[in-house]
Amino acid sequence: MSELLVIRGATDGTSTTGTVSLYSDLFHSPVNYFRIPKGMSAKIWWKKVSGEAETLFTIQYTYDVTASPPTWKDMEQEKLSAKGEISIEKRRPLILRAFTGKEAFRITWTQPTAALAYVELGVEIE
Amino acid sequence: MNKVTDEYGLVLEGEYITVFMPATSRALVFRVKSRVNRGYETIDYGPLPLTAGSTLPTFEGGSASVPADGVIPARAYTTGLSFPMDGAYDRDDMWYVPEDYRDRLFHIIQYVTPAFLRIDVQIPTAVTQGRFQKDKIVTGVDKPFGFARGKYEIVQLPKIHYGYRYANETNIDLYSFVKFTYAEYVVETPRNPNLIFDILTRRMLSKWITLPVNVMDTTVERAMIDAYGITGFPLYPIDERDRAVREYSELLREVKI
């Protein structure tokens, strides 16, 4: 059984770097990362990025989110070079596996000038 | 889909359903005479019956508060839940029926959203059934293994409350939803011991469902005797037909349906 989620987030509009607060119709409250259930994978099938200014969104992954602090590795990036929108659908998804149940992913942003920008991921947990 | 089930995985009228219990190596065998809810096999039940403010145990050994009705907290698991329904025989457990409903058998396929939630069932409520290496390790949603995800198929026996457990391994408080695909069968026990032998040696087609009963609680045993008169037909090897048929004939004299 797999579950397809649309996970969204945004920059705060005032900081040039940060971690995106993630939300979805299934989430009761926003979170800073998604811990992947043990033995399952998070498959990221599509990404949409939009915003008012240049923004680099980075998908990061950690093997152990319980470590303090966790070590996050950059997995994929999407750069909005100026005000606008990018939509990417993938035939081969980015696969993030949970080997121990402590793995997680998150999205960070970097901007030369703080501005509002938005990100959306189509994630299948399988 | 095979010859005895439809597109839902539910048993067709006139076909057989076998309910096997690992704890006793016995099985109940029924012929489906009819399906009362033919054409109306689904119930969009709604969220898991979790009440805001109640507390659940967590994987870390603490407790977590349910933040809103139907929301399963991060890293938490439920104790045995039943599904309330107004007007049902037991309004706190919609699948519970007493022993005089013995001619009705509920075949239930449960789908849970999000599908990555862990599921297991206690039969009866509070008796965890998952085992590894005899009784060496008790398994279940709160352990590393011994659970399903997203879908659970089961048969509801009369006079027993089942306790469904769910676990959320993520760091997120999650909204939930449950959909049931089910059949309310009108059933009878086949009266021909040779036919029962052929079903239990898999020479006759039947839908087999294994109830996850590895520990035979006295409640379950008593309920089966009260409802059906027997705790099931023992499985025999294929070369012991005569012995099996003799025992099945004796058991059939005790059968109430």
Task: Provide tags for this entry.
heterodimer; A: 126 residues; mainly beta; 5-stranded antiparallel β-sheet; 4-stranded antiparallel β-sheet; B: 257 residues; alpha+beta; 3-stranded antiparallel β-sheet; 3 helices; 17 strands
Write a structural description.
- Chain A is globular, with a radius of gyration of 14 Å.
- Chain A is mostly beta strands.
- Chain A is built from no helices and nine strands.
- In chain A, the strands form two sheets. In chain A, strands 2, 3, 5, 6 and 8 form a five-stranded antiparallel beta sheet that branches.
- With 257 residues, chain B is an alpha+beta fold.
- Chain B has one domain.
- Chain B is built from three helices and 17 strands.
- Chain B has helices at residues 193-200, 218-228, 241-254, and strands at 16-21, 26-35, 42-46, 55-57, 63-65, 71-72, 104-113, 118-122, 131-132, 137-138, 148-149, 151-156, 163-167, 174-175, 177-188, 207-210, 233-234.
- In chain B, β4 (55-57) and β5 form a beta hairpin.
- Chain B is globular.
- The chains are: A mainly beta (126), B alpha+beta (257).
- Chain A binds chain B through residues 1-3, 5, 25-29, 31, 33-38, 40, 65, 101, 104, 125, and chain B through 67-68, 71, 111, 113-116, 118, 144, 149-151, 169-175.
Strand portion of chain B: 25-35%
- Provide the structure class of chain B: alpha+beta
Largest sheet of chain B: 8 strands, mixed
Ends apart, CA distance between termini of chain A: 7 Å
The figure for the number of domains of chain B is: 1
Average pLDDT of chain B, rounded to a whole number, is: 97
Let me know the number of strands of chain B: 17
* Termini Cα gap of chain B: 28 Å
Q: Tell me the greatest interface.
A: A-B, 21 and 20 residues
Largest sheet of chain A: 5 strands, antiparallel
Mean pLDDT of chain A: 97
